[in-house]
Design goal:
Elements lengths: L2 H4 L2 H25 L3 H21 L1 H19 L20 H25 L2 H12 L4
Helix pairs in contact: 2-3, 3-4, 4-5
Length: 140
């Protein structure tokens, strides 16, 4: 007996999203806590595949994850390369590293933009058209 007899279409979609999210979480856990190269490689491929499937099928949900990750990356980058640690330990900590600041900050901004784009792509067509029309009507 297939799931089509037990679950309606919305329930099947929710089940698929939940299974993909759980698989993605397990794969990311392998990436974070893996102790061997083979486990890390397998987890990396599994993460990429599951995120790709999630993005293909549930674009808005994927965009939400991407925006959340972009915000985390921006938060994490906010104190990197900006000096101001403490010169008590070493004067090397006080140096401002422009390349680190630019790469990490704009990398985070890029992830945020991609996430927002995926959120837009995941909206229902009529909502997306209304939003884009409002943006085009802005007069500067």
């Amino acid at each position: 007996m297939g799931t089509s007899r037990l679950l309606n279409a919305a329930q099947r979609e929710a089940l698929l999203a939940s299974l993909l999210s759980a698989f993605t979480g397990a794969a990311i856990s392998g990436l974070i806590y893996g102790q061997s190269k083979s486990l890390i490689m397998f987890s990396g491929v599994a993460t990429a595949l599951s995120l790709f499937l999630l993005r293909t099928r549930f674009r808005f949900l994927y965009g939400t994850f991407e925006v959340a990750f972009g915000l985390y990356v921006l938060w994490n980058a906010s104190d990197k390369g900006r000096g101001a640690f403490s010169s008590v330990f070493s004067s090397g900590f006080d140096t401002f590293q422009l390349s680190v600041v630019l790469i990490q900050t704009f990398g985070a901004i890029y992830v945020l933009i991609r996430g927002l784009d995926n959120l837009m792509q995941g909206l229902p067509v009529e909502t997306k058209v209304k939003f884009e029309t409002r943006i085009r009507e802005w007069h500067v």
